Amino acid sequence: MIQSNKLKKIKGINHGFFNRIGGESKGIYQSLNCGLGSKDEKKIVKKNLKAVKNRIGKESKTIFLLHQIHSNKFVYLSKNFKNTKKKIKADAIITDQRRLPIAVLTADCVPILIYDNILNIIAAIHAGWKGAYKGIIKNVINFMLKKGCKRENIHVAIGPCISQKNYNVKGDFIKKFIKKDKKNKIFFKKRKNLTYFDLSSYVKSQLKLSKITNIDHINIDTFDYKNNFFSARRSSRLKHDDYGRNISIIMIN
User: Fold this and answer.
1) Which of 38, 45, 154, 165 is least enclosed by beta carbons within 10 angstroms?
2) CATH code of the domain containing 85
3) Residues of the chain with pLDDT under 50
4) Cα–Cα distance for residue pair 228/90, rounded to 1 Å
5) Domain that holds residue 113
Protein backbone atom coordinates (compact mmCIF):
# COMPACT_ATOMS: atom_id res chain seq x y z
CA MET A 1 0.00 0.00 0.00
CA ILE A 2 1.27 3.43 -0.98
CA GLN A 3 0.15 6.57 0.83
CA SER A 4 0.21 10.24 0.01
CA ASN A 5 2.77 12.06 2.17
CA LYS A 6 0.34 14.98 2.47
CA LEU A 7 -2.81 13.01 3.26
CA LYS A 8 -1.17 10.77 5.84
CA LYS A 9 -0.15 13.84 7.85
CA ILE A 10 -3.79 14.82 8.26
CA LYS A 11 -5.66 13.13 11.11
CA GLY A 12 -9.16 11.81 10.62
CA ILE A 13 -8.80 9.58 7.58
CA ASN A 14 -7.25 6.35 6.36
CA HIS A 15 -6.28 5.96 2.72
CA GLY A 16 -4.14 3.94 0.38
CA PHE A 17 -3.21 3.27 -3.24
CA PHE A 18 -2.85 -0.51 -3.52
CA ASN A 19 -0.80 -2.30 -6.15
CA ARG A 20 -1.11 -5.97 -7.12
CA ILE A 21 0.70 -7.36 -4.04
CA GLY A 22 -1.07 -8.98 -1.08
CA GLY A 23 -4.00 -10.95 -2.46
CA GLU A 24 -5.06 -14.47 -3.40
CA SER A 25 -5.65 -14.26 -7.16
CA LYS A 26 -3.64 -16.43 -9.55
CA GLY A 27 -2.24 -16.24 -13.06
CA ILE A 28 -2.56 -12.90 -14.86
CA TYR A 29 -4.53 -11.59 -11.83
CA GLN A 30 -1.79 -12.31 -9.29
CA SER A 31 -2.37 -11.35 -6.61
CA LEU A 32 -4.51 -8.44 -5.24
CA ASN A 33 -7.00 -8.14 -8.08
CA CYS A 34 -9.92 -6.02 -6.81
CA GLY A 35 -11.94 -5.96 -10.03
CA LEU A 36 -15.26 -7.78 -9.72
CA GLY A 37 -15.77 -6.88 -13.37
CA SER A 38 -12.73 -8.91 -14.40
CA LYS A 39 -12.85 -12.59 -15.44
CA ASP A 40 -11.15 -13.59 -12.20
CA GLU A 41 -13.03 -15.80 -9.70
CA LYS A 42 -15.54 -13.60 -7.87
CA LYS A 43 -15.07 -15.33 -4.50
CA ILE A 44 -11.32 -14.67 -4.65
CA VAL A 45 -11.81 -11.02 -5.66
CA LYS A 46 -14.17 -10.63 -2.68
CA LYS A 47 -11.47 -12.04 -0.40
CA ASN A 48 -9.03 -9.51 -1.84
CA LEU A 49 -11.49 -6.68 -1.21
CA LYS A 50 -11.98 -7.85 2.36
CA ALA A 51 -8.22 -7.80 2.90
CA VAL A 52 -8.11 -4.20 1.65
CA LYS A 53 -11.03 -3.22 3.89
CA ASN A 54 -9.32 -4.73 6.93
CA ARG A 55 -6.15 -2.81 6.14
CA ILE A 56 -8.10 0.47 6.06
CA GLY A 57 -10.26 -0.30 9.10
CA LYS A 58 -11.50 -3.64 10.44
CA GLU A 59 -14.64 -2.05 11.90
CA SER A 60 -15.48 -0.25 8.68
CA LYS A 61 -18.46 -0.93 6.44
CA THR A 62 -18.23 -2.75 3.10
CA ILE A 63 -16.18 -0.88 0.51
CA PHE A 64 -18.43 1.21 -1.73
CA LEU A 65 -17.56 0.68 -5.39
CA LEU A 66 -19.05 1.91 -8.64
CA HIS A 67 -19.77 0.52 -12.07
CA GLN A 68 -17.23 2.82 -13.74
CA ILE A 69 -18.14 4.08 -17.21
CA HIS A 70 -15.51 6.75 -18.07
CA SER A 71 -18.01 9.56 -17.47
CA ASN A 72 -18.21 12.90 -15.65
CA LYS A 73 -20.86 11.55 -13.26
CA PHE A 74 -20.49 11.21 -9.49
CA VAL A 75 -22.59 9.98 -6.56
CA TYR A 76 -22.93 11.64 -3.15
CA LEU A 77 -23.42 9.28 -0.22
CA SER A 78 -25.31 11.11 2.52
CA LYS A 79 -26.62 9.59 5.75
CA ASN A 80 -29.94 9.00 3.94
CA PHE A 81 -28.33 7.13 1.07
CA LYS A 82 -29.66 3.58 0.68
CA ASN A 83 -27.21 1.12 -0.82
CA THR A 84 -28.51 -1.55 -3.19
CA LYS A 85 -26.83 -4.59 -4.71
CA LYS A 86 -26.91 -2.93 -8.12
CA LYS A 87 -23.84 -0.75 -8.61
CA ILE A 88 -24.28 2.88 -9.60
CA LYS A 89 -22.89 3.89 -12.99
CA ALA A 90 -20.52 6.78 -12.28
CA ASP A 91 -16.82 7.57 -11.88
CA ALA A 92 -16.55 9.41 -8.58
CA ILE A 93 -17.86 9.07 -5.03
CA ILE A 94 -18.26 11.83 -2.44
CA THR A 95 -19.29 11.31 1.19
CA ASP A 96 -19.20 12.76 4.69
CA GLN A 97 -20.06 9.44 6.36
CA ARG A 98 -17.66 7.93 8.89
CA ARG A 99 -16.27 4.40 8.54
CA LEU A 100 -17.58 4.14 4.97
CA PRO A 101 -14.62 3.31 2.72
CA ILE A 102 -15.05 4.59 -0.83
CA ALA A 103 -12.82 3.37 -3.63
CA VAL A 104 -12.13 3.44 -7.35
CA LEU A 105 -10.50 0.80 -9.54
CA THR A 106 -7.83 1.56 -12.14
CA ALA A 107 -5.41 -0.21 -14.46
CA ASP A 108 -3.53 2.80 -15.96
CA CYS A 109 -6.18 5.50 -15.43
CA VAL A 110 -5.65 8.08 -12.68
CA PRO A 111 -7.06 7.47 -9.19
CA ILE A 112 -7.65 10.67 -7.21
CA LEU A 113 -8.33 10.83 -3.47
CA ILE A 114 -9.63 14.05 -1.90
CA TYR A 115 -10.19 15.25 1.65
CA ASP A 116 -11.54 18.45 3.14
CA ASN A 117 -10.17 18.34 6.68
CA ILE A 118 -12.47 21.08 7.99
CA LEU A 119 -15.87 19.84 6.78
CA ASN A 120 -14.74 16.18 6.86
CA ILE A 121 -15.74 15.34 3.31
CA ILE A 122 -13.88 12.82 1.14
CA ALA A 123 -13.99 11.90 -2.54
CA ALA A 124 -12.53 9.24 -4.79
CA ILE A 125 -12.30 9.80 -8.55
CA HIS A 126 -11.57 7.44 -11.43
CA ALA A 127 -10.08 9.72 -14.10
CA GLY A 128 -9.30 8.07 -17.39
CA TRP A 129 -8.73 10.38 -20.34
CA LYS A 130 -12.43 10.34 -21.20
CA GLY A 131 -13.62 11.28 -17.72
CA ALA A 132 -10.94 13.94 -17.32
CA TYR A 133 -11.78 15.35 -20.76
CA LYS A 134 -15.51 15.42 -19.92
CA GLY A 135 -14.94 17.29 -16.64
CA ILE A 136 -15.26 14.70 -13.86
CA ILE A 137 -12.69 16.56 -11.71
CA LYS A 138 -14.37 19.95 -12.11
CA ASN A 139 -17.78 18.44 -11.30
CA VAL A 140 -16.54 16.87 -8.06
CA ILE A 141 -14.73 20.00 -6.90
CA ASN A 142 -17.73 22.22 -7.73
CA PHE A 143 -20.04 19.96 -5.73
CA MET A 144 -17.70 20.06 -2.75
CA LEU A 145 -17.58 23.85 -2.96
CA LYS A 146 -21.39 23.96 -3.04
CA LYS A 147 -21.42 21.81 0.12
CA GLY A 148 -19.39 24.53 1.82
CA CYS A 149 -15.82 23.35 1.29
CA LYS A 150 -13.15 25.99 0.78
CA ARG A 151 -10.43 25.49 -1.80
CA GLU A 152 -7.63 25.99 0.72
CA ASN A 153 -8.99 23.10 2.83
CA ILE A 154 -9.22 20.63 -0.05
CA HIS A 155 -6.26 18.23 -0.13
CA VAL A 156 -5.74 16.04 -3.20
CA ALA A 157 -3.58 13.01 -3.91
CA ILE A 158 -3.07 11.97 -7.54
CA GLY A 159 -2.24 8.27 -7.50
CA PRO A 160 -0.14 5.95 -9.66
CA CYS A 161 -1.09 5.78 -13.34
CA ILE A 162 0.45 5.21 -16.74
CA SER A 163 3.38 7.52 -17.54
CA GLN A 164 3.68 9.64 -20.66
CA LYS A 165 6.56 7.57 -22.07
CA ASN A 166 4.29 4.51 -22.20
CA TYR A 167 1.08 6.19 -23.38
CA ASN A 168 1.24 6.65 -27.14
CA VAL A 169 -1.93 7.96 -28.78
CA LYS A 170 -3.33 8.43 -32.30
CA GLY A 171 -4.11 11.52 -34.32
CA ASP A 172 -7.83 11.72 -33.62
CA PHE A 173 -7.11 11.62 -29.87
CA ILE A 174 -4.67 14.55 -30.19
CA LYS A 175 -7.07 16.58 -32.35
CA LYS A 176 -9.87 16.09 -29.83
CA PHE A 177 -7.85 17.62 -26.98
CA ILE A 178 -6.37 20.47 -28.99
CA LYS A 179 -9.78 21.35 -30.46
CA LYS A 180 -11.08 21.72 -26.92
CA ASP A 181 -8.16 23.94 -25.88
CA LYS A 182 -5.03 24.81 -27.87
CA LYS A 183 -3.09 24.95 -24.61
CA ASN A 184 -3.49 21.17 -24.36
CA LYS A 185 -0.59 20.84 -26.80
CA ILE A 186 1.77 20.87 -23.81
CA PHE A 187 0.51 17.43 -22.74
CA PHE A 188 1.75 15.77 -25.93
CA LYS A 189 5.29 14.81 -26.87
CA LYS A 190 6.56 13.37 -30.15
CA ARG A 191 9.20 10.67 -30.24
CA LYS A 192 10.21 8.47 -33.22
CA ASN A 193 7.06 9.24 -35.25
CA LEU A 194 4.78 8.50 -32.29
CA THR A 195 2.96 10.92 -29.99
CA TYR A 196 2.69 10.39 -26.24
CA PHE A 197 0.12 11.82 -23.83
CA ASP A 198 0.80 12.97 -20.24
CA LEU A 199 -2.44 11.93 -18.52
CA SER A 200 -1.39 12.70 -14.94
CA SER A 201 -0.24 16.23 -15.86
CA TYR A 202 -3.53 16.83 -17.66
CA VAL A 203 -5.39 15.71 -14.54
CA LYS A 204 -3.26 18.00 -12.39
CA SER A 205 -4.03 20.90 -14.74
CA GLN A 206 -7.76 20.29 -14.25
CA LEU A 207 -7.32 20.57 -10.49
CA LYS A 208 -5.37 23.80 -10.93
CA LEU A 209 -8.11 25.19 -13.19
CA SER A 210 -10.44 24.65 -10.23
CA LYS A 211 -7.92 26.64 -8.15
CA ILE A 212 -6.89 23.68 -5.99
CA THR A 213 -3.30 24.06 -4.78
CA ASN A 214 -2.87 21.39 -2.07
CA ILE A 215 -1.89 18.62 -4.50
CA ASP A 216 0.33 15.60 -3.92
CA HIS A 217 1.33 13.74 -7.10
CA ILE A 218 2.53 10.16 -6.55
CA ASN A 219 4.63 9.72 -9.65
CA ILE A 220 4.63 5.94 -10.12
CA ASP A 221 4.14 4.34 -13.54
CA THR A 222 1.56 1.53 -13.55
CA PHE A 223 2.81 0.27 -16.94
CA ASP A 224 6.29 -0.49 -15.60
CA TYR A 225 6.15 -4.11 -14.39
CA LYS A 226 8.69 -3.59 -11.60
CA ASN A 227 6.23 -1.25 -9.82
CA ASN A 228 3.81 -4.18 -9.34
CA PHE A 229 0.63 -2.54 -10.60
CA PHE A 230 -1.97 -3.96 -12.96
CA SER A 231 -1.88 -2.28 -16.37
CA ALA A 232 -4.49 -2.64 -19.11
CA ARG A 233 -2.09 -1.39 -21.77
CA ARG A 234 0.72 -3.71 -20.70
CA SER A 235 -1.72 -6.66 -20.63
CA SER A 236 -2.86 -5.78 -24.14
CA ARG A 237 0.71 -5.74 -25.44
CA LEU A 238 1.31 -9.11 -23.80
CA LYS A 239 -1.81 -10.41 -25.60
CA HIS A 240 -3.62 -11.26 -22.35
CA ASP A 241 -7.41 -11.50 -22.70
CA ASP A 242 -8.04 -9.58 -19.47
CA TYR A 243 -6.28 -7.74 -16.63
CA GLY A 244 -6.55 -7.13 -12.90
CA ARG A 245 -7.58 -3.86 -11.26
CA ASN A 246 -5.75 -1.77 -8.67
CA ILE A 247 -7.80 -0.25 -5.86
CA SER A 248 -7.45 3.25 -4.37
CA ILE A 249 -9.40 3.85 -1.21
CA ILE A 250 -10.18 6.51 1.41
CA MET A 251 -12.28 6.53 4.59
CA ILE A 252 -13.20 8.97 7.35
CA ASN A 253 -12.36 7.36 10.71
Assistant:
1) 165
2) 3.60.140.10
3) none
4) 27
5) 7-162+216-252
